[in-house]
């Protein structure tokens, strides 16, 4: 636990190494702004037990790297109480399966949904067991300040925004806006199938740099309209006639075939 060797502490910055578990309910770190967790080869749990989530409400930047035993980054309680988290960077965490632990709490807690209202940058690299970035419910107003998404060499990633397609009507399109997103990079993700579930349509009016490479199995189609808004749309299988109609509608902009490499910058 924090407080017994292997750490250097100040009011705003904390760097930690060599622990199996970190924070519990006995520590008050309410002034902490920057947290860097590096080379924690035995770390499995960052936030443990009935920790007071208020202790981390000023956290703005979290970096986690070379922590090969870590299975998830956030507990649901902590994830609901990070109003100022702006930067999230994770790399070389081999066993990481999800960013947020599955929520086992009662339904009353769902009145306070998980969201990161200040998150501006998320960057993940070399986390081979991660299956998705965030639940698609996050995108319903929970990450409106997000500017950068960078996912590289996450070999088992299947979805960027994960959702239960069984509960989604394929006839009802859900349009999601990421109004401040400027940079999207998807690189060397061989198992990536979709950006978001079927019938979701993501629109990024501020995107300046789009890079997709080494994602041969992705079925989401990216396009740019005449106003330079970037669209990411995942649809059920289409007939030839439907495809022709869609391509005709996008004729004033640019549409890339599913699975193709993309390197596009706004002009």
Automatic annotation (TrEMBL):
PANTHER family: NB-ARC DOMAIN-CONTAINING PROTEIN-RELATED. The keyword RNA-binding does not apply. This is Disease resistance protein At4g27190-like leucine-rich repeats domain-containing protein. Residues 229-238 have a biased composition (Polar residues). Transmembrane segments: none annotated. Pfam families: LRR_RPS2 (PF23247). Residues 229-262 are annotated as: Disordered. Keywords: Plant defense. The lineage of its organism: Eukaryota, Viridiplantae, Streptophyta, Embryophyta, Tracheophyta. Residues 27-94, 102-226 form the Disease resistance protein At4g27190-like leucine-rich repeats domain. It comes from the Eukaryota. Gene3D superfamilies: Ribonuclease Inhibitor. InterPro entries: At4g27190-like_LRR, LRR_dom_sf, Plant_NBS-LRR.
